[in-house]
Design brief:
alpha/beta; single chain; 21% strand; 374 residues
Length: 374
């Protein structure tokens, strides 16, 4: 079992918080699609032998900018070079791209899950983020997607927008729950270098929310999702019991995946790697029969630490037997005092053969994971 991620590096405009790799110059869209199909062919041996592809995920950027013909060109290339038994075929979309005809076309090529980048239902916040859509288009997109027969829907929300109170976030949560998409991904607003927000913060024109303010909104998110019967199966992801995102879940369960497109990352179960994050250099490399991929060697310790980091974020937790098999009984002996402290502080619990973060511990997931590293 394995997944394929396709990075489509184009957007209509730059969101003020985004530091992902993309371009607003759409003139090379078809060249990029052609290069992506070439890379698919050249990397058909990357995944472990006899891997069966059960998920495909179009991310970006804004992959919904591509025409149906271009998306289909990529899917045909995948089916020509890999064994498929698809459980999920996802595309990230912006609300303003989801018109009735577009949705019909997406379904016609087998896409069965939409991840809609809403971020907020508030007009002021959307404008501040420089999003290309408005709140009305968000609600319309969800309604149109449901009417088009999409049973797997996910919406993205951002919390932590600086404000005098939590009223705006409460409103966003209430609207999201009312829409009942089945899956909600929510991330804290972060100020990244080389973004508009980063530049504003550096010049004193933007003051990020405090950590306590953001933590309060994270706890509000947890509480609201729980009341609405959404399960927090990963720190930032909430879904109804039958609506978990299979592709993303596989990342956290250490399942190999192939990343295609500029800046895309890959993992074959033993080592990671990444593609060059430059559209022209990516296209030109593939035209000259080379693969713009850099291997990132990982030691056995790196692999275990990454397993701890990713597994601890999920409701399935970190498998103690896995750690014992890799590290021996000495690991638990060495970490005994730490584990006892984390339990006494109600940050971690041990159920059966797994370490699990408590609701409180999820606020400190990364630091707790780091303390458990070898």
């Amino acid at each position: 079992m394995a997944g394929i991620y396709i990075h489509i590096p184009f957007c209509k405009q730059a969101c003020h918080y985004c530091d992902f790799h993309f371009s607003t110059n759409l003139t090379k869209t078809q060249e990029m699609v052609d290069a992506i199909t070439l890379e698919i062919e050249k990397r058909k041996e990357y995944l472990p032998k006899n891997s069966i592809i059960n998920t495909i995920y179009f991310g970006g950027g804004t992959p919904s900018l591509l025409s149906t013909k271009q998306l289909e060109q990529i899917l045909v290339a995948i089916s020509n070079h890999f064994i498929l038994d698809l459980e999920e075929l996802t595309i990230e979309t912006n609300p303003d791209d989801l018109k009735k005809e577009k949705l019909k076309e997406l379904r016609s090529i087998g896409i069965d899950r939409l991840s809609i980048g809403i971020q907020s239902f508030d007009a002021h916040i959307l404008k501040y983020y420089n999003r290309a859509h408005n709140a009305e288009e968000s609600l319309q997109a969800i309604d149109l997607a449901k009417n088009a027969g999409f049973e797997k829907l996910s919406i993205d929300l951002i919390y932590g927008f600086p404000s005098e109170s939590h009223q705006l976030w409460e409103k966003d949560l209430a609207i999201a729950i009312e829409q009942d998409p089945g899956h909600i991904s929510s991330y804290c607003l972060t100020v990244e270098p080389k973004t508009a927000l980063g530049n504003w913060a550096e010049k004193g024109k933007f003051k990020p929310a405090s950590e306590d303010f953001a933590a309060d909104q994270f706890e509000m998110l947890q509480e609201s999702m729980e009341k609405a019967n959404y399960i927090q199966y990963e720190i930032s992801n909430f879904g109804k019991s039958d609506q978990f995102a299979i592709h993303n879940k596989n990342y956290w369960l250490n399942i190999p995946y192939l990343g295609i497109g500029p800046s895309a990352h890959s993992y074959d179960g033993k080592e990671r790697g990444f593609n060059i994050a430059n559209n022209s250099k990516y296209i030109n490399a593939l035209k000259t029969e080379s693969i713009p991929f850099t291997v990132e060697p990982m030691s056995s310790e790196d692999l275990v630490n990454e397993y701890i980091l990713t597994s601890l974020r999920t409701i399935w937790g970190t498998d103690i037997e896995f750690l014992k098999n890799r590290l021996g009984d000495s690991y638990l002996t060495d970490k005994a005092n730490l584990l006892s402290q984390l339990q006494s502080e109600l940050l971690l619990e041990i159920k059966g053969n797994h370490f699990l973060l408590t609701k409180k511990g999820k606020l400190l997931a990364d630091s707790i994971a780091a303390s458990l590293f070898i």
